[in-house]
Amino acid sequence: MKNKARKVLIIEDEGDLCLLLNILLEGKGTEVEHVQSIAEAEEFLLHEKPSLIILDNRLPDGFGIDFLSFVKEEHPSTKVIMISGVDVAAEDVALENGADAFLKKPFTKAQLHEKVTRLLNTEDTIASPF
């Protein structure tokens, strides 16, 4: 019996990074969706329950760090990887607010693979061209 694809939600407003994350994560047991704002993410989460969220900190309508409590309240079992390129202190705050992992931009394919694999608890989630 084939495992059902795990849904990954990318909340990121930079189109290039969204595309790159999508390419790295699509298939291989994952189904990738993306939104570009907290408002879109809230709407998405009313109808879907992703296994993993990749959440940027700086979004057009707010900070990902502030959105973490909503995510964890609505979907406590959903894993969250917080990404940020600007905020030096963001990692500690993100982890305190419920993020399961943190990636500082720019990050490598290997770093992304390690976090996703660890959080989704399966080696075959993403094939290893990383």
Automatic annotation (TrEMBL):
Keyword Repeat on entry: no
Keywords assigned by UniProt, alphabetized: Phosphoprotein
Keyword presence, Nucleus: no
Residues of the Response regulatory domain: 7-120
InterPro entries: Bact_response_regulator, CheY-like_superfamily, Sig_transdc_resp-reg_receiver
PROSITE patterns the UniProt entry points to: RESPONSE_REGULATORY
Domain of life: Bacteria
Protein name (database record): Response regulator
Source species of the chain: Chitinophaga rhizophila
